Here is the input.
Amino acid sequence: MTCPRSVRNVLPDFATKPTIDGDLVRLVPLETRHLDELWPAYEDAELARLTGSTGTFTRDETERIIAGRRHAPDRLDLAVIERATGRCVGEVVLNEWDEHNRSCNFRTLFVASGRDRGFGTEAIRLILEHAFNTLALHRISLGVFAFNARARRVYEKLGFVEEGVLRETLNWDGEWHDEIIMSILEDEWRSGRELPIDA
Here is the structure.
């Protein structure tokens, strides 16, 4: 099953930032007010290793970046809110919009208290649903380092398929690491969307 032709020919509206409810989390537009709760993740050394983040921004620079994304017409940045507490525990992002090919890149991060609790799996499922059903994307891709087995399992569970390996793209503490390229296509998402979240 694919998107109706009329839907495929409509450009996605990235400027409209949705609120999306799940059972465990709510996705809301990322705003500077979320920075207090997200900042520990930006300073987390282990998370920096998992994402290969070597550049650093000051808090003021980060606040300006987030403020600029609130109305960005070519990307979607959503904060992940734990519904039980109202706390911001992470973010999910669609970026690198390719209009001609109806594709985006995906990335995410979570603070320590938001990991291993099912929040990430549900948040990714929710943004994929929005991407394919509302934005009418055809393809979503991501890169994950070979040593990040936990993230790879989550992506595989949600239907992402490994496409190939970019060899030794990251040098971390003197060691080279491969990057695994994964993607999910609209037809793959539609054929597997009825799977339970813990499948």
Observations:
- Confidence is low (pLDDT under 50) at residues 194-199.
